Amino acid sequence: MEIINSSQNQYLKYLKKLYKTRKRKKENVFILEGKNIIEEACNLEMDFEYIFMTPEFHEKNKLDIKDFSPDKINIKYIEKKLLGKIADTVSPQGIIAIVKKPDYKFKQFKNKKNLLILDQIQDPGNMGTLIRTAVAAGMDGIIALKGCVDIYNLKVIRATMGTIFALPILTRIDLQQFKNLYQKNNFNLITAESSRGEIYSKVEYESPLMIVIGNEARGVRSEIIGLSDRLVKIPVFGDIDSLNAAIAGGIILYKSVEKNRTL
Amino acid sequence: MEIINSSQNQYLKYLKKLYKTRKRKKENVFILEGKNIIEEACNLEMDFEYIFMTPEFHEKNKLDIKDFSPDKINIKYIEKKLLGKIADTVSPQGIIAIVKKPDYKFKQFKNKKNLLILDQIQDPGNMGTLIRTAVAAGMDGIIALKGCVDIYNLKVIRATMGTIFALPILTRIDLQQFKNLYQKNNFNLITAESSRGEIYSKVEYESPLMIVIGNEARGVRSEIIGLSDRLVKIPVFGDIDSLNAAIAGGIILYKSVEKNRTL
Fold this sequence. Notes:
2 copies of one chain form a homodimer.
Chain A lengths: L2 E2 L5 H8 L3 H7 L1 E5 L1 H9 L4 E6 L1 H7 L13 E4 L1 H7 L8 E6 L13 E6 L4 H13 L4 E5 L8 H6 L9 E5 L1 H10 L3 E5 L5 E2 L9 E6 L7 H6 L2 E4 L11 H16 L3
Parallel strand pairs in A: 1-4, 3-4, 6-7, 6-11, 7-8, 9-11, 9-12, 10-12
Antiparallel strand pairs in A: 2-5, 3-5
Helix pairs in contact in A: 6-10
């Protein structure tokens, strides 16, 4: 077993570079840290570029994770100290993977029945929680418009609690592409807007449905508001301007669930 | 104007110590960073111990914040570099305050109509978001049972987005005290439970109401489940165990709003 023990190793230098968003985008890959999420990605037969693990992790887990065999995946063993230095998490559990981004097709989204549209969501925790909530609510896809935080950011992935692969997610879609998808496929476009609009609980959420949640401070962009079939608001009672974006998303997504499914 | 320029200054050393949870608890104070939240605390006439500000902040803001006069509040001026080193936020905006914890009385909670009860909520972001959501939903108090993250943790305060003072919040209440409050005052105790219970949208939320949200991983403790008048669950559809605790709180709080108010 060859073990990487120098920070000058070419594979390690490549991994290090991928902790920068720009480099990840260029290479079209993302990073996973920790056993559970990497196991999940294995089960879903994601396309791995490399898996870095410590000899200690290999020793402890070789019986548990049968797919982690060097025959199937390009595994690099690495000293615990070096792996600890590079990882984003405090305790990376001895394993980091580089995974190729899933290639979800735009045209697949034409026939979806329930989509969550995210406009300029900036906070990684909100983004991850919105993805997790959309999965829970049984949505069948998410579109993260250009201007959202990178969904393959490690903080986002952690906040999804293992649901990052559970739904197809289109990213970096611009307003024109979005407009085309909406208009050519007769979606019912319902946009959350904190100050105007109808009360969220009083409208119907007919399929094919798009629910739009916008930026934490500025809300949804005016171009999308202009396109919308309905604007909905969640009333607030206390001395407060608005709800957190993920909370607003959760309330509206579950209202659409309630109206359209037998609970 | 006397300006603190040494890290050995006694007031600065005291402030530094208060960045430890234990020390804050002992002194019964908490820390605020940044202009907006400190301004809010001023407006609410919170009890300040000290305000530390840079001469630059004083210069820039003296017209805006009239209550920040040394006659009313004990102000210490401090070099920008020293303040930057001590602060938790990346850009503390030149102002940090030490505030005495509000003294909310247990007995005031007897006559409340709508309470949010938090059981072992651990994540500061969830705690802050739950407080913000309870304020939005017009709840009239929160009880954070013993075992929750410190609500005066700076990360919690940031996540409340300025609503930390908007509601009375009892903290460090033990199960026996909670049980007494519940039983002596005929509260309707509704507990969120991810696996059992009735569908959240199908029950009534009569006042005086207590809604309980539990720990991110373990849920609500069995003692509270045993006491509950109703258990409610939010169904999930995708390949997922449960919702984020703050999202579950948001959905259930707004369901109670919807059932009890004219929206």
